[in-house]
Design goal:
The complex is a heterodimer of chains A (533) and B (375). Chain A has 19 helices and 22 strands. Chain A has 533 residues and is of the alpha/beta class. In chain A, helix 7 links the parallel strand 7 and strand 8. In chain B, strands 1-2 form a two-stranded antiparallel sheet. In chain B, helix 7 packs antiparallel against helix 10. Chain B is globular and about 80 Å long. The chains are: A alpha/beta (533), B mainly alpha (375). At the A-B interface, strand 5, helix 3, helix 11, helix 12 and strand 18 of A face helix 8 and helix 9 of B.
Amino acid sequence: MTPTNSTTSDLHNSPPVVVEMRGIVKRFPGVLANDHVDFELRAGEIHALLGENGAGKSTLMNVLAGLYRQEAGVILVKGKTVHFSSPRDAIEAGIGMVHQHFMLVPSQTVTENILLGLDEPRFLLRLSKYDAKIAELGQKFGLAVDPRAKVWQLSVGEQQRVEILKMLYRGADVLIMDEPTAVLAPQEIEGLFGILRAMTAQGKSIIFISHKLNEVTAIADRITVLRRGKVTAAGLPTKNVTKQDLARQMVGREVIFSLEKKPLTAGDIVLDVQDIHAENDKGLPALRGVSLNVRAGEIVGLAGVAGNGQRELSQVITGLRPCKQGRVILNGTIVSNRNALFGIQHGMAYIPEDRTHVGTAPNLSVTDNVIMKKYRQPPISHYGLLDMNTAAKFANELKQAYDIMVPTVETPVRLLSGGNLQRVILAREISGQPRFMVAVQPTRGLDVGAIEGVHRLLLKQREAGAAVLLISEELEELLSLSDRVYVIYEGKIMGEVKIESGEPDAGLIETLGLMMTGTPLDQIHKEGAVAHG
Amino acid sequence: MAESVPRQPLLSFRIRIEPRLSEPPPWYPAVISLSAIIVALLLGGVVIALAGGDPLRSYAHIAKASFGNLGVLSDTIVKATPIILTALACSVAFRMKLWNIGAEGQFIMGAFGASAIVLAKALPPEAPRWAFIPVMMLAGMAAGAVWGFIPGYLKAKFNVNEIISTLMLNYIAVSWVDFWIFAVWTEAGFQMSPKFPTNTWLPRLADYAKAIPAFRGLTTHAGLLMGIVAAILLWLVVFRSRWGYEIRLIGDNPQAAKYAGINISRNTIWVMMLSGALAGLGGMSEVTGVVHRLQTAPIAAGYGFTGIIVAWLAKLNPVIIILVSILFGALILAGREIQPSGVPKMIQGIILVCLIASDFMLRYRIRFVRVGKEE
């Protein structure tokens, strides 16, 4: 068979196109979010839409889902031109979107949530009939959820299934999944992939928005890549591409997967955490005797599955949470059980996990946000008055130095993308020349380019002699940045390992995996010794 | 519309309402507010016509009765003065998302505190005006601040809902003043204190009629000056001071404020006290500038509640509060001119509803789409 033949036969055999978007243009003030974008979805396929944050993926899909309206271009569904003026129009045409943030009523049952907004039932809520119908629908697509369960009782993965069911119940043939894995635990991601495959097997078509290369190559049949509002690769079959190719299409340059980490000898102990016991928000013990230390000029990782006390530990260290027992010493000063201000005044920087709810004030300007830790002293303030000119100058310097993409520093930060927002936070924290920094999930939800930028900044801190405690769920990130890694499990440290530069060996990763699932390091060694002996 | 061929419409245009995705230009809010007032006046005209009046003549009368000459303009400003101070009081608390609806009570307590200086003879009755006024200002502000401190402390220490506590304290303030003017400082059994001596009055423009004849009969008093100075100072505090930065940060995101090391409880108490002090200053200005005796009826006249609306309409901006207060002063004054209650109140209501509804236009835009030629 010649290549020409195979192409023609492909054309004849390939499933029909269900959605076609041609020349879509969508502008936001100052940004051309979609610049004549073409996109094509075939029946029964999983089509990944790949791109960095701000590449225009979500914009394009919001146009398709009837949330935004394009300024130019046409949408064809099954060959017919359509005009959507609301999501209702889109769902009538069989297109449903599952958003990253779920839109469910926690106090209501699964069935009630699915029926919400529909015309039936008219008067009497005979829900049992609908319960059965929804259970049946779930069965068909492998979406096991109890229709009578209240939504607040469900795990995040189950809530996502409810959102998918909501769309299927409304007759969606095309499902748009907006970064569906961002909120899921690793096991749940596998489950989701199973569901997506089951749905395509039954003739549904899926658009999978993501910026994670591994996931996209694992699940998608074809991939379309967007960069700065333009298509850089249209509908490539997954089997024909490599991750390196995709990464290049996405960011427009070769992504350096391994970072350059200069060999350094660590200095004195900067942060000393001694036998910390603390409770979580519900008053249950979250930390049960955590001890660790961080030296000057080293990055120390804290690995662990989410919810094992990482959040509480970062709060105890930064003074936002009291501890019941133990103490935190920063450069010889006890900083635990004081307050956040005390930590800040003793040279502590903090990259919080939640950028929008903790790290920034959304309606205040970039200037107001970058002076958050500096407004107390000159040159920003004198005798209780703020010098807004100096503050604006400072903000503009940071904007330049940290490449914060924003028209002016007077812009409220709620208009910034995730990567830009993180740059604002990093700029603020690093500009204080901290001696110690806690960074919690500093790259979560960021795209490849932004992640690299954050990593470089953290390494620069290390070279500048700061002590960095990096709390992360991304093992790859911890291994490429850290000098040492502690593992936390249910509020206890399972052990500590040194990370040598170069490729981590399989044995180390296995050890870390065992510790993350609850086996202490000394026990691993003992068992290893028994096995060998 | 999901179908590919739209039905033949009656009009060749369709109106569409879409959420605004970008910030509107800076002049836009002002234009929208102005249009809202025009629409309200048109609607009010319909009401007047239905009531059997002549809308144009009525409006002309209202305009004349509130801005027509120096005399009525001065009366308008007298009505606006207490509103400026209560609205400033509300604005600073609202900026921190503290819902102080107790400006009314703090205003009354301010009037009480200032009056106590005269009635309890804290200063000798023959003391000069330059001694009385600053002392009364301080006393009024202190009494208002105490009335703000109580809900602020309860909120900071025990997380008591400030909406409830400030509302309840309004009633206590009225009863408190009633007790004193019935039982202690009563003027021959009437529910009012004796009239204050003139050396305790705030200076009025009319006082300078000898030097400037145009000022004859003008009742505008120094309370206006206090309001303007307070507005400017408050603007500086909110937008140009460290404390104001903390207030804005807490108001926008308390979590971020905690993260930045700001003590929210302490700020809650201080801001409630500042709010109370501003309202209290309003009470002092009213009692020493207009009423000249302690009496509940003319003092507990709802200025504190009007202040909530004005603060809101002015988007909490201290300088705009002055303008909006003057508009409300005019409405109160002119309203009485054409009818004691009823239609003027209705027009006030219509203006309010239109202004609040016009907010919608800041967040949404209306587009006219030619049918069949979409996008």
